[in-house]
């Protein structure tokens, strides 16, 4: 199900799920006026560059979410692009999972834990904090045409961060990834409470176990299926399920 909004920004759009979000959103019958694909290194994001050559709605923005100076510069660039209409949707997709480390107690280090928390939690909050004025502007302008709200935050989380479900998987302990994704979901719940009154809905979203560089070739779900499901769920988010952890099939997951 396609939805219709004026502007969207996606982090980590160079490859994997982020790139597929870009492809499927641009293929909507009524695509956004502007879709900002943020990535660490635009010069090596060849897939994005190819799409941008034939689609003027797509703007590639440099954004390493670990770097405050990048967040400041990306904000200014996005502000110049969307102007007074603001930003309708921010999809916080960039993520990190060091799979060379099984993440059991004997394997983890302070720096591995910090790196996962920095990218999967703190960086998203810093990006959201910076971009909030643009989301507020979209609310003020009633920018969204079909969404059930005026502005929306999506945080790509994971079932691996669900305290209820994590016991059911046989996968390694993964202190680093699971604890950080649990915090991604908690951050989303807290954001949903803080931003509800402002008219901004927040969706922590599990995309499934997907065949990307991160998910690996044995993963259960293809990238197209995952993202078309994610987009349906994003389009049906409302005041009723803001802050609820959902999967790409539209099932509410226990946190
Ligand atoms: P990939 O490893 O394929 O892609 C990760 C993306 O994140 C890349 O675009 C990468 O950019 C970007 N990224 C990493 N660090 C930063 C950073 N510091 N600043 C900006 N961008 C960064 O992963 P997926 O596409 O599979 O995952 C996307 C999201 O989905 C992640 O949040 C992940 O945790 C989550 N997820 C994935 C699942 C799966 O099975 N695949 C399951 C559940 C959740 P670059 O190209 O520059 O490295």
TrEMBL record:
Family matches, as CDD domains: carb_red_sniffer_like_SDR_c
Source species, domain of life: Eukaryota
UniProt keyword terms in alphabetical order: NADP, Oxidoreductase
Source species: Elysia crispata (lettuce slug)
InterPro entries named among the record's database cross-references: Fungal_SecMetab_SDRs, NAD(P)-bd_dom_sf, SDR_fam
One family name in Pfam for this protein: adh_short
GO molecular function: oxidoreductase activity
PANTHER family noted in UniProt: NADB-LER2 (PTHR43544:SF7), SHORT-CHAIN DEHYDROGENASE/REDUCTASE (PTHR43544)
One Gene Ontology CC term in the entry: cytoplasm
Keyword Coiled coil carried by entry: no
Stated name of the protein: Uncharacterized protein
